[in-house]
Amino acid sequence: MRKILDEWHSEKRGEKNTVIYELRQVKGGDKKLFCRLNGVQAERHGAVGHLLIYFGCDGYGYNSTWIENQNHLKTAAFKASLNTLVCHLRNDVLQDRDEMRFHCKGSVYGSSLGKHVTGFKFHQDGFTYYLRCNPGGLDYDAYLFAYDDRFLFPELAGKHKLPNYCFTLLPSTGEMIRITRGESGYYPCGVKLLSAEKIRLMVNGENAQIGVTRAQEEAMLAGSLFGWNTPAAKPWRYDSNGDLLPAKRQIKAEPAR
User: Fold this and answer.
1) Fewest CB atoms within 10 Å of the CB: 156, 196, 215, 216?
2) What is the pTM of this model?
3) Residue 112's pLDDT is what?
4) 169 and 56: one domain?
5) 122 lies in which domain range?
6) Cβ–Cβ contacts within 10 Å for residue 38, how many?
7) Is 109 part of a structural domain of the chain?
């Protein structure tokens, strides 16, 4: 992993700032993230959207178009991160078509995605970016795909899948119960006379031993109570504290550009 430090001056305040972003090695499982994801896959991976980048006929211009994926993830923090990263890449790999060719041939961080296509992976401020470079192609010169790490990291770690079983608290009584994936109902664990705080600590400890997150726990509880096909039985719909995220706009499947 290579950390890149850039110094820049705020246009409004004239202050000197240091920006740090990371250029990371591309792994085999990353390959699909250099293309547009749609529907559930976009939701699970936290796909925000992507930039289409074209250097013009002479290769020295710069034109970009933003393609929306999930509007609710396009927060102020994301916009700031994207703008900062693109600003610095414009002085590097995205300077022009010749500079892109140079980086595609000479960087140890680039990964071949096919004939004359190279991929780079960047991380900054809670977001991960996958840059697909195709200088001289018939389409756009580059595609920059953006992902929200709150969704991407758990998905890549396999934490958006439901475990075989987990422990939780029964909402009506506060007792400790065990839930099995795919089954309705629950199995009492015989722990119900302790305080809610102590039972919660016990549940957290048991789930930690089997690698179950709070998001998975809450999804399992919803599945056992309301059916395993309900939207609430999807771990990616919860944050790391197990709180249900706000309702999202329906994502429609569209052909990748």
Assistant:
1) 196
2) 0.80
3) 87
4) no
5) 2-156
6) 16
7) yes
pLDDT at 183: 96
Confirm if 90 and 81 have CB atoms less than 8 A apart: no
Which tokens is 248 given?
């999202």
Are 47 and 144 found together in one domain?
Answer: yes
- Cβ(73)–Cβ(152) under 8 Å? no
55, two tokens: 């250097």
What the block records as the tokens of 84 is: 């900062």
pLDDT per residue as tens digits for the range 174-229:
899 999 999 999 999 987 677 888 999 999 999 999 999 999 999 999 999 999 99
pLDDT of residue 250: 39
Residue ranges, the chain, pLDDT below 70: 1-21, 137-138, 192, 247-257
Residues making up the chain, counted from first to last? 257
d(C-alpha 237, C-alpha 232), whole Å: 7
SS3 65: strand
Complete DSSP assignment for 162-230: PPSEEEEE-TTT--EEEEETT-SS-EEEEE-SS-HHHHHHHHHHHHHHTT--HHHHHHHHHHHHH-TTS
